[in-house]
Every structure is written in C-alpha cells, then in structure tokens.
Amino acid sequence: MTFKFAVGTILGIVLMAVFMPILASDYQQRLKDYSSNVSYNEGELAKIKVYQCITPTIYRRPSVLSVFSIGLEKRLSDSAKIELKNIPIIDAGSAEVNPYLSVFPIFDAVLIIKVVIGVLALILATDLVSGEKQQGTLILMLSNSIARHQILFGKTVAGLMVLTIPVTATFIVGLIILQVFPLIDLSAWDWARVGLMYIVSLIFVFVMFNVGLLFSCLSKNPAISLLLGLFFWILCGFVIPNLSIHLASKLRPQQTAEILQGRLQSIECEYKSEAEHLSYGGTFSSTEGAFGNYFHYICDQRALQTLSEYNNRIQPLNLQFAARNWEAKNNHLQSLLYQRELARNISIISPLWLYEKITDSLAETDLASFEQFMTDVGLYRSQVIEYIRSRTNNFSSREFFTTCTPADYDQLIEFEGQLKKKYKTMSEAKNEYEQWQKNMLDKKAPLDLRDFPRLVHNSHIWQTLKYVLQQIMMLVFFTFFFFALTFAVFQKYDVR
Question: How many whole angstroms separate alpha carbon 320 and alpha carbon 261?
C-alpha cells in the first residue's frame, strides 16, 4: 500500500506499454526485411544460367523474443555470403565479439525488469528492518514471544509475494501488446521460453530483495541501507562486468590485429604467387547475371578450352586459400572468445549480469546463437560447393562459366559480318548488336536447380535448456546465499 510500491509498479507497466509497441514494430520491420531478402535469393536462384553465379547470401531469421531481450541481435551481422573464395565467420572486429563491450545496454523489456523492478525490490527491502527499528516497531514485535526467524521469514515471504505483482503485471501487459501485432506468432517453444523468462525474472527480483534485506539488517538507518543497495546495483550492473573485461584482457592477452593482418597478407601473397602462373586466352565477352555476378556469354573455341582448364585449377586453389584465410581469422576470433569467456566467468558473481545472459540465451540473441548460425552456414557452404563441383566436373565444364556454345559463337561471327555490310561502323550497329545479344541470352534457359541444397537450421533446444538451467541454478544460489547472510546478521541485530 506504500506510495513507492505503487510508483514502481505503475512505472514498470507504463514503460512496458510504451516501449513494447516500439520493440514489436522494430521486430516486424526486421522480419519483413528478412522475408524480402529470402525472396530476392529465391528470385535470383531462378535466374541462374551458369554455376559460378551461385553466390546467395544466407540471412538469419530475427528472433521473435528479441523484443524481450535484444542481446546481440542488432549488433552482429545476421547474414553470410556463400562463395568459393571466402568462408563466413563472425567479424572479429565487432565490438560485441571483442570483450570491450559497450557500458550501456540496448533498451528492451528485460531492461525494465532489471532497472525499475530490480531497484524497486531494493527500495522496499532496505526499509523493512532498519526502517522499523527507526520507528520503534521492531522492538515492540520482539518484546512478544515471536522468534526472530519468524519475523524474518514473514517479511521475506510477504515481500516476495508483493514483488510478484509488478513482475507479473509487466509481463502480461507486454504479451497482450505483442499479440496485437499480426506478424508476431509465438510457437509452443516460444511460449515455453517466455515462461522461463518470467520465472527467471521472479528469481532475479527475489535476489535483489534479499540483497536489500541484508543491507537493511546491516544498518540502523534506512537511508544508509538504501544507499548501500543502490551502490550494490551499480556495482553489479556496471562495475563488475566492465572490470571483468579489463582483468580478462590483462590475464589473457589477445592476438593483435596487426598479427592477423600480417598473416592474411602473407596468405594473399602466396595465393597471388600461385595464381599468376594460371592464365586463359581467346575471345570472350561478359555480362551481368544473377546475384550481380558476371559470366561469359560469348566464347570462341580457344576461350572455351583455356577457361575450362583455368577454372579446373583456380577454383580448387580458391577453396584452399579460403580455408587458410578462415583458419587465420578463426584463430584471432578464438583468442577474443577465450578472453570473453574469462570475462564471463568473472562476471558470473553479478546477479544482474547473470540475469541478462540467461534471458539472452532464452531469446536466442546471445553470441552462442550467432556462432551456431555461422557454423550452419559453413556446413551449408560445403554442400553448395560439392553440388557445383559434382555438376561441373570439378569446375571445368562449360556450364560453370558460360552459356555460349561453339554454335553460338559461329552465329555471332555470321551476324557481325551482316552488320559490317549493313553499317559503315560498328558504333552505328550498337543498338542492333545489343538487341541480338539480349535475344540470345533470353533463349538460354536457367539451370535446373530443383535439387539445389537448402539450408537446414538445426534445433538446439536441449543445449539451450541445459545452459539456461545451469545459470538459473546459479541465480537460485544467490537467492539462498543472500538470505542465509541476512538470517545470520538479523539474529544478532541490535533492535534498541
């Protein structure tokens, strides 16, 4: 019935009502962009006329639960291009892979719980013991036959029951608003994750309540208890996560970007050294095809032969050096991830950090989800390459690089002869020549890609649940740990 409880509860509900439509609209726009990109891929695949133009970009579907916990959803790249000369990998230069993370998190629904209701739990709890002592009511209670542990349990249970109200109300408001948006459809697994987020939010609020109760038992002045509680929130929310980054960088130095660039330059020099011995000749002309790639639409007999031999040797070389480039980049990435893992292990002592990471995992917006996406894309790239290799005789057949046949080239020579007779210069015949070229290309049917491999996203539900349950147990441990400390301190608390 207190004013501060009413203000905290109303503030949480209002913020959720204000920001959830914004977050949901943002998700809908990202979902539309994703659908548009997928449709573009399908459209371009339908226009493929030579195998070397197959370079689709794979997009990661945005997580519907990012409206609750945005995590790295908008900070890391959500796409990867399939090509022979490059293996996709998370950008090691990203600020989110690099342990030096931003101090301020991106706004989401979980942030409302963490800031508004988490602080509300501290404010309510810091007044329960020291406030009653100051008012003189605590000594009156203890003057009766009621034991101290009964008073503490009563205050704890009542406080936790009361704090369930703002958490529940905030989640209900968010879910009601979410259901209004037509493109947002929650599956059974999504609802299960929302339920786990709700439970984790309750546990987090209970942790903050017990922390506030501990400080209330450590001080005789409620104002000092409140200051200690807010200091704890700032310490766990900002100081520990960023201090852990600094400590991790000192304890486990990362591979420098200069070393990586030197390694990549060395690989590039080796590639150029081997590739410069490969060449091709003859007469050929190129035009733009699917996915913005160029291919040869005219080749004479010599070009067909030399390009066939060239691709038979250069494409395996591209694959070889793409693997070496990936290995160098991955070694650099792993050094950053090892450092980030050490920072994570240090930050686990912060309940606020732990709560954020649990919700990120449940929303599938954590780093592990993006790593899994890149792993899936890498496996898919191998399938695509094997598909192209098997249908082009190891990249050497004419279908890999051109639509031209010897008969097409003979027709071109004959047509050019007609143009020379008809016009004084070839520049005057430009329009007619270009129209002939267009007609010739239009006659070429796209490749039959009905058996082209499709990316299959593997389900990692059990891995996610296993990780989340481990972290939840850690959060539960914090609840009992702070309550145990509170119990021990309250037994010796001077109520006079």
Answer: 19
Domains of the chain, by residue range, sit at 3-253+344-384+458-491, 259-324+386-443
pLDDT tens digits, 219-232: 888 889 999 999 99
pLDDT digits (tens, 9 = 90+) for 68-114: 998 888 788 889 999 999 998 886 555 444 444 444 456 788 999 99
Structure tokens at 204: 């987090």
Partners of residue 287 on adjacent β-strands: 295
- For residue 277, report the phi and psi dihedrals to the nearest 5 degrees: -80, -10
Q: Closest Cα to residue 455, out of 367, 382, 354?
A: 382
Phi and psi for 413 in degrees, rounded to 5?
-60, -40
205 CB neighbour count, 10 Å cutoff: 25
CA distance 422 to 188: 71
Instruction: Judge contact between 366 and 276, C-beta under 8 A.
Output: no
SS3 labels along the chain: CCHHHHHHHHHHHHHHHHHHHHHHHHHHHHHHHHHHHHHHHHHHHCCCCCHHHCCCEEECCCCHHHHCCCCCCCCCCCEEECECCECCCCCCCCCCCCCCCCCCCCCCHHHHHHHHHHHHHHHHHCCCCHHHHHHCHHHHHHCCCCCHHHHHHHHHHHHHHHHHHHHHHHHHHHHHHHHHCCCCCCCHHHHHHHHHHHHHHHHHHHHHHHHHHHHHHHCCCHHHHHHHHHHHHHHHHHHHHHHHHHHHHHHCCCCCHHHHHHHHHHHHHHHHHHHCCCCCCCCEEEEECHHHCEEEEEECHHHHHHHHHHHHHHHHHHHHHHHHHHHHHHHHHHHHHHHHHHHHHHHCCCHHHHHHHHHHHHHCCCHHHHHHHHHHHHHHHHHHHHHHHHHCCCCCCHHHHECCCHHHHHHHHHHHHHHHHHCCCCCCCHHHHHHHHHHHHHHCCCCCCCCCCCCCCCCCHHHHHHHHHHHHHHHHHHHHHHHHHHHHHHHCCCCC
> At 459, phi and psi to the nearest 5?
-80, 135
pTM, entire model: 0.87
Written as six digits, the tokens of 331 are 């070694």
pLDDT tens sequence across 325-381: 999 988 888 888 888 888 888 889 999 999 999 999 999 998 888 888 998 999 999
Distance CA 51, CA 468 (A): 43
Give the Cα separation of 320 and 307 in Å (integer). 19
Find residue 288's DSSP bridge partners: 294
CA count, 13 A, side-chain hemisphere, 28: 14
**Site of tokens 């038992």:** 217
